[in-house]
Specification:
417 residues; alpha/beta; 8-stranded mixed sheet; two-stranded parallel ribbon; 10 strands; globular
Length: 417
């Protein structure tokens, strides 16, 4: 069978989305028979997805990533607010010195055009006194660089074996910027990841060469077309951002005992829903166009359920929240894949990738039978089971695992037959 080129594309979604993706990767790892999620050919990451991908390409397993995000890695503390939300003090001070001149200019302009302006226009002009971002992106870059160093990961694109691409957006032109082999590969991975994650107004733009870079998600949550251009025949995309489905009006308990519309929670929730709608519709259109233009390329899109509100409202800085979000990723992906398992197995079989759900179903049952005991969840998610990667696929234990997977397939056919 001709070897297929497999790409893993991780979309953005903030720190919550990153933990969700790690949980989903943990589930996918259990399904794979003779490889792991660290053994794909191409990795494309946007925003927080770029952070997760930067560890995968360095051989860090989902279990090891979870131990870093939780409080179980003795070598490193989990992310704290000050690690990734460090106030942009330098620019605040710089803008403060310009405030008198900005006020004078705004007032003079108002006096000259008093018949054609409102106070809102004056306030709008005063926004020039605000910094380009509330938080310092360079502080986040230092944290990412430290994470990579402690995990003994390379911070250079040209030292990686698989192809790795990080997506950012040029603020001045609106064009997509790609960091990776053949384009921007001299930029450190930590800097590329930070540029890709610089959400406008939250973080100041990241200056890379002559470009001011901001969040890569502005050009679309996932650049699947880049994977196609690089020759991928199979693309697995994990997208943690989907709109809430609140049509029944009672799927979100904190709206009250009688339910209600999302608008009851104010501007923040409206803005969040609008952003999710735009990002999700953009990704759906992107996938639809690629499937039409490249019918020979299989695309598997993995997302949370639309009515799964819980992962969206946790404070990700809390230990219990990180654990629950990871569990949601693991459990929801397991259940979704189980519902349509024959189709996914058939798709992956076309690319020479066998699947088995024996291990993942066993672990899911253990979590459910414990009543979702946090200790059991943590142990299951952070315990690395025996896995066979490409280099070990001819080992006796891997040949046995592959034989059991083939037996599963025969039994499934017999049950259907």
């Amino acid at each position: 069978m001709k070897h297929s080129k497999v790409a893993l594309v991780l979309a953005g979604g903030g720190l919550t989305g990153a933990v969700y993706e790690i949980g989903a990767l943990r589930a996918i790892d259990d399904l794979l028979v003779d490889r792991t999620v660290n053994d794909f050919d191409i990795y494309v990451g946007t925003s927080a997805g770029a952070l997760v991908a930067s560890f995968l390409v360095n051989g860090v397993s989902p279990e090891e990533m979870l131990s870093t995000f939780q409080e179980t890695n003795p070598d490193f503390n989990p992310p704290r607010p000050w690690n990734i939300f460090s106030f942009n003090n330098r620019e605040f001070l710089k803008r403060a010195t310009l405030l008198p001149r900005t006020l004078l200019s705004a007032w003079a302009h108002y006096v000259r055009h008093v018949d054609d302006m409102t106070m809102f226009d004056v306030l709008w002009s005063l926004l020039e006194a605000l910094p380009s971002g509330m938080y310092d992106a360079l502080a986040m870059e230092r944290y990412v660089r430290q994470l990579l160093s402690i995990q003994r990961c390379t911070n250079a694109f040209d030292e990686l074996e698989p192809e790795f691409y990080v997506i950012a957006t040029d603020l001045d032109s609106g064009e997509r910027i790609v960091f990776g082999p053949g384009q921007g590969q001299d930029v450190p991975i930590s800097e590329a990841v930070t540029a890709s994650s610089a959400l406008p107004l939250v973080y100041n733009p990241v200056r890379v060469g002559e470009n001011d870079c901001v969040d890569g998600g502005l050009r679309g949550p996932a650049s699947l077309d880049l994977a196609v251009e690089r020759g991928a025949n199979l693309i697995i995309c994990i997208n943690p951002l989907v709109p809430y489905d609140n049509r029944d009006r009672d799927s979100i308990p904190f709206l009250g005992p009688d339910g209600g519309h999302l608008s009851r929670k104010g501007a923040r929730f409206i803005a969040s829903q609008v952003m999710r709608i735009m990002m999700h519709s953009s990704l759906q259109y992107h996938v639809k166009q690629l499937r039409r233009q490249h019918p020979d390329v299989d695309i598997i899109l993995i997302e949370p359920r639309r009515d799964d509100y819980q992962m969206f409202f946790y404070n990700i800085m809390r230990y219990s929240a990180r654990l629950m979000v990871a569990r949601h990723g693991f459990e929801s992906i397991t259940l979704d894949l189980a519902e349509d398992y024959p189709r996914y197995k058939q798709i992956l079989a076309r690319h020479g990738i066998p699947l088995s759900r024996r291990l993942v179903i066993s672990e899911l049952n253990e979590i459910q039978e414990s009543g979702y005991d946090p200790k059991v969840i943590q142990r299951v998610l952070q315990t690395r089971q025996m896995r066979c990667n490409r280099r070990d696929r001819n080992a006796p234990i891997c040949e046995l695992t592959r034989a059991l997977a083939e037996l599963d397939l025969v039994l499934e056919r017999a049950e259907r037959g």
